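re: ur question from earlier - yeah i can do the single chain one, its not a big deal. heres the input i used so u can compare w yours
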Amino acid sequence: MIYRRPTSLLGAGVMLTLAAGCATTPDTPVRDAPLPVPGLWTTDSGPPDSVQPWLQDIDDERLHRLVATAVRQNFDLRAAAARVEAAQARARIRGADRLPALQLAVDGARTRRSDANNAGLVDNPVSSFGFDLQLSWELDVWDRLADASRGALADAQASEADFHAARLSLAAAIARGWFNAIEAQQQVRLARQTVTSFEASRDIVAQQYRSGIGNALDLRLARADAATAMSNLRQRERDRDAAIRDLESILGRYPAASLSVPEQMPRIKYAVPAGLPSELIGRRPDLLAAERRLYATESRLSEARKNRLPRFRLTANGGTASAELRNLLDWDVLVWSLVGDILQPLFQGGRLEAEQALAQADNREALAQYAQSVLTALREVETALAAETFLSGQEEAVRRSALESREASSLALERYQGGLTDIITLLESQRRAFNSESSLLTIVNLRLQNRINLYLGLGGDYRDLQADELAAGHTPVTEPRL
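and the output i got, formated as tokens:
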């Protein structure tokens, strides 16, 4: 599990600290990134409020269950979890270098020797037994081994953050696929209504033509629009089929297009609060991973520099040897040795210098990637906050357009039947009405998709609400369902 400590973003991006289990987290040095970051987001969206886990903002329990199931069963997440375990094991391996290594060797031999004088064999075989305890320890005088251990631990923490980022991305992908499938279902329903409407208009024109009131041009135009509406229905059905298969694939199911989706889009419960501090992006797992990788490169750079310094080692041996197994633990014949040595690298063909240059390049790359990650996170949140306002205004305008277009279509049909307008006006009014309805369905979907983008940008997740969040109260969103 990743533990977070929020810090300031004052002109420096995100300063993050992780801790892993019982291991000691290396201290993160303060870095200055060349990014002027405001204390608050520049886009305001309403009265101040608190933020709750993003999935809980969507009033759809079935979606919640789908996400929970997929997170448990997704193969990519299982692979990411295995990578975390591997990184943790590598960190333990590197940490073991700082501790003494103790080995026990017990040997036994039975030998039959030859006599060099008579070229024969000695009748009595000789037995020998040995007991040896070996200890070796490199004294970490310069903290070189500590740097290696800290770098490996930071890599493990980065892998854990990657796992949380993958889980969050999976949940978002399922939600997006769910909304797309619902919109596709609604578009099919609207397309069927369009076919019914245009076929009804065609029949009216045909009846007037048979009665000698209409003309052949009006009839052909009405037939053409009815056929176009049928073609659009087939396209919408294909889109729905593809959307459902895509969603099934994300869920880890066979893409049989058998998943049923609701007829209505879910409702967003709460409005986006104003005054969101920019420090919220510090919750983003991708930024946590980028910061930990940056720290890992700093540790490895320090290790590479210290590889040029002398190394101090202690080696101790102690044991016994006897021709009788029962005397093996006789401490009266114990022999031991203690050796200390200093190893100073002198010439290795430029390897140490190249290792330091490589570590410096890796560190510069990690720093640039970290700064870019912060900048990308800021852009994503600012864009999503601004889109909340734009899409809200766009939806309101499209709703008015759809309402007026429906009324205009009904009026045009009445006037055509009364001989007060031509077929072109009727067909055009019908097309506008259904285009507006289709656009409204798309806009509602886009608002839901943008809300997901916002919570991803802020590092939101789908954990249970904390007590202070439940007590804070929220601003409900008042928007009608389609």
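The domain at 54-96+144-308+356-472 is CATH 1.20.1600.10 (Outer membrane efflux proteins (OEP)). not sure if urs matches, ping me
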